[in-house]
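Dear Dr. H.,

I hope your travels went smoothly. While you were away I took the liberty of generating a structure for the chain from your last submission, since the lab meeting agenda had it listed for discussion. I wanted you to have the full record in hand beforehand rather than looking at slides cold. The sequence, exactly as received, is reproduced here:
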Amino acid sequence: MTKPLALLQKYWGHTSFRPMQEEIIQAVIDKKDTLALLPTGGGKSVCFQIPALTLDGICIVISPLVALIQDQVAGLKANGIKAIALTGGLKNEDVNALLDNCIYGDYKFLYISPERIQQEIVQERIKQMPVNVIAIDEAHCISQWGNDFRPAYRNINTLRELLPNVHCIALTATATPKVVVDIEENLHLKDVQRFQQSFVRENLAYTVLETENKVLTIEKTLRKYPQSCIVYVRNRKSTVMIHEALKRKGFTSLYFHGGLSSEEKKVALQKWLNGKVQTIVATNAFGMGIDKPDVKNVIHIHLPDSLENYYQEAGRAGRNGEYANAIILTDKNDIKQLQQQFIHNVPEVDFLKLVFRKLCSFFQVAYGEGYNTKHALPFYEFCKAYQFPTQKTFTALQLLDRHSVLQLSQHFNRKTIIKFTLDQYNLMNYLDNHPHLSLITQAILRTYGGIFEQKIKINTTYLAQKLGLPQEKINETIQQLAKDEVLLLEEMQTDAEITFLVAREDDKTIHPIAKDVIHQNELKKKRVEAVIKYVRNTEVCKNSQLLSYFGEIAKEACGICSVCKTKKATTPDRELQMLIHDDILKVLRTNPMTSTEICEALPYRENLILAIIQLLLEVEKIKLTEQNTYTI
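The corresponding predicted structure, in token form, is as follows:
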């Protein structure tokens, strides 16, 4: 049996384990049911990957995140470890072939989505596999109290019934005490070995900063800390807007969102990982499975929708143990916007039913049909067709995904469908007169049979690779052929894709999940309220607030968060307070000013000035105007 440390060195290049990893690995090797609660960056995947490599047989890994499954499988393959991903959207023959490989192909890992476990063919093949460990990633998804509850996770009990003698390891980064109990009960963990790291990140300074100019505040932060940075925003438009604003200020920056092509994402990610750009501006899907140790700043310019998500996203800073910042920038409109998006826009059950019916109509799915069919979804076109509000509709799709009605994937996709309208004789005459179009046209004819008789979907990326030409050249040629009426061209550009995981039964499809949806909507409201409380609380240490949320009591205040820094700066030096107090009043006697203008006009630290402004407001020595400026 190869020792765990030797495997860590061989495949991952590390010479020592992170805290608790070795103990967790040993418990799994000893065939104990195990629950590992490790914070973001704690190295959860190694805790099941190394035991699986140590033991004979194959490890089954259940994960709800297709992107994370693909990343981990790609990483294992890159290290020469045989791994397979069995997610949604695969044809039956492909599923058969992959499962046979798991039985006979000496594979070490089968990554599987929870929805797949209920398929009879999957269950039958799993019985034949020499399974050594069942690993449940993002285990909080099995709990109705968890941040991302997915009813399909309850299917894991089926797996335990199929493999009663195989032990489990459940892993999560964000679980409240209530969720921990729920995980253990729902997974039927026996004599469970529980390993829980503290949620404390001693090197991470949690900061909530009220500012009227978020871009200016980011600029100041990046100049003070010129190392690697993630700026989290809520939508794609904001990624581009903030990226361009930072570039105008002279910073190296890239943006990252679901609408980029796979190649564009790969290029942007590599440049940031390699340190060629300082900042990546991204939607909150970014960062899962990415371990960059030297991130100095994680900045949120919109309020997160839950403290669970915030803790994970903030935790991508300072993984090397050095001082780092987790900053929330907020203004007077943010709380209202958060409530509007995540409370007032929560889709009720009737709206879910309507969206599902219209999806079926949009894709012409007949009653009783649609199971396991995949469709490119032009999201905004869909919303426009049925006059649906975009934010509420997207939340509805996410709920349908979470409850295994469909699988939603966000990615850029260009679909090109063509059919030649000229017969072969006239086409050859045309090419004789247009020889510069001949190479690509001939390649299409050789690659796609039946293209004179029916519309065929073609892969322009494949043609470009085959011919060694830029993809733009392929597209230009097809556009010219269409313009000259040589072929019919249908193009569709989408930013999402859905796979129906159930057959169409209209309202009957939604009825079984209605109770869970109502429960989850109520929990969503409570999570948003917890975020608002965290942002507004300027008396209790930010680190202590987060620890309390996750059921841990702080031994002492952290000393480096925005609350602690403000108390340190403002409490001891009465003389300095009075100096700032007098200078603020002096500059405001000239004319009304915003807080940003006051900070720029005075030679004191921003947090000190803002604290005294708040004090002056409370004692009514200054007031806030309708133009959001301060005056005496």
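Two observations you may find useful: The CA atoms of residues 419 and 451 lie 5 Å apart. The longest strand covers residues 413-420.

With kind regards,
E. W.
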